[in-house]
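TEACHING EXERCISE
Course module: macromolecular assemblies
Task: Read the component lines below, then compare them to the predicted structure of the full complex.
Student: A.B.
Group: 4
Components provided:
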Amino acid sequence: MIEKMSEHKPKKSVPAGEILRVYLPYVRRQWKWLLAIFLTGIFLQASNLAAPLFLRKFFNLLALETPTPTTIHALVMTLALVGLMWFISWLMQRLQDTANIFYVADVMHDLYNDSFGYLLGHSYSFFISNFAGTLTHRISRLVRSFEMISDTILTQFFPALLFVSGAIFVLYTRNHMLGSILAAWAILFIVCQVYIAKLRQASRTSRAEAETKVTGTIADAISNQPTVMQFAGVIHEQSILSDVVRFWHKATLRSWLIDGWTWGIIGLFVLCIQGGLLYGAIIYWERGLLTVGDFVLIQSYLLGTFNQLMGIGGQLRRFYDAFADAGEMVEILKTPHEIRDAQDAKPLAVEKANINFANVSFSFADDKSILSDFNLSIKGAEKVAFVGPSGAGKSTTTRLLLRMFDIKGGAIEIDGQNIAQVTQDSLREAISFVPQEPILFHRTLFENIRYGKRDATQAEVIEAAKKAHCHEFISKLKDGYETYVGERGIKLSGGERQRVAIARAILKNSPILVLDEATSSLDSESEALIQDALKNLMEGKTVIVIAHRLSTIMNMDRIIVIENGRVAAQGTHQELIEHKGLYHKLWSIQAGGFLQDDEMGPEVAEEEREA
Ligand code: ADP
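Instructor-supplied answer key:
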């Protein structure tokens, strides 16, 4: 169960380098802000390093001189210089923060846009095997991770590097030994950090995975809320979630405990070095090699160094988490789009809208053959109905025409052009697809209909709505066309949603129409309205209907009987009845003009008749 939660979870952690490579082009685009951050950073740390030097002078003056007007003047002047350094430091910090705000926000803006665009370019298969909830989560985590990673590098690592190397240099010039101790300690600290980081990455990755599973499980239960309610499944769902949360809890504890303790041990080292350096200073002071001012200098640099490093330590856990979080989306960004335009793809040019399936074979990833040697020609403006038992391959055939999957053999052509060689956008522009259970955007009815032709005028939208018999129910709503339809269109009835989808297709006005007829029983008024709407929609188009109703089939030019991924028979209703094959059987078990395509045994037929 847990394993199925997300097929695109990282099997092993995505290397940090790969994540940084994804961010790099966005960072380059903002090079001006980045340069400002670097320059202000250099001035900032230079003033932070200079202030203790003036303080050193200040304390040396205090220790050596007796209070005379000249000494007082020298002390005040030195203090003024210290104050000036503090002010420059304050100013640079403000400027750097401001540049950083612009830089981070601009990169995040571009990351949102691009990763959303790339994600939507993935194939239909990709989306049916990933939860919408977890995908949404991954985009925002990628973007927010950038903020964390960038802030840590630019406002923690970079200043620490400048300050610590500056402090080592200045101390070294004062006293080789003390400078060398600080340098050795800093190097040891960095080596330990790199090593520990590697150890910690695994626990962080499993925590990020566990979080994705938690979100996925919650999203799945919420989107199936009606089922949960009808099957009294709240406790069952809670137990599923509690399994996943237990896994998350374990992974989180492990990851946080490892982090907390490694950082704690580093803290102990910090105390040792502080004690050690000051002890060394006493010895040099005893020999007359260090002044009181030097103590102030050492203490200021030590405090500065530790503050910088401790600041990094506090942030490090979130910094590594950010890499683990970003890794999940980077994996998706690195996964090539499954269905891509051919290199020299041209736009599809539709004249008559003839469709030809030539020896098409197809199977899903599991390799079970779904279509084999499928042959079918449909003439321009011809209207055909696909009928056949459930699982025969009717929907798959229409999806192949839309190139939602790529075929394994043969060719699908529209007006002689192989659909694999034309641009996907132009192909899908040429086909209107009305699904069995249309899902609508949580936008207004107006926007939902206008999706068929995004530059349509209000008059065009209303005309389409009238033809699709939507206008009747829309005008009765308080907010009319401005009514929000609820997530996935939940606030409309099945019949109303289908009519909105038909209105959208009328507006799109593509030369080819694919219609997966709703099987759910609609009331007879809705049924009549939909049939009339469809008549308007089909006019002059090449039409494929996956038919479940006899009323539709009877109006078709030709009926294609599909069985086991092949065309088993075709002809008009009369011809097929006379032929006494599968169609005859289907016809004889139908009840009230409604084909039960998933229940076609003789016993069912008997029950249907009795009913
Ligand atoms: P029909 O529309 O005739 O009822 P379909 O074309 O939906 O049949 O399905 C044909 C076969 O393909 C079925 O066995 C179904 O289980 C399988 N199938 C459909 N979609 C997928 C998918 N995304 N992955 C794997 N198998 C699938």
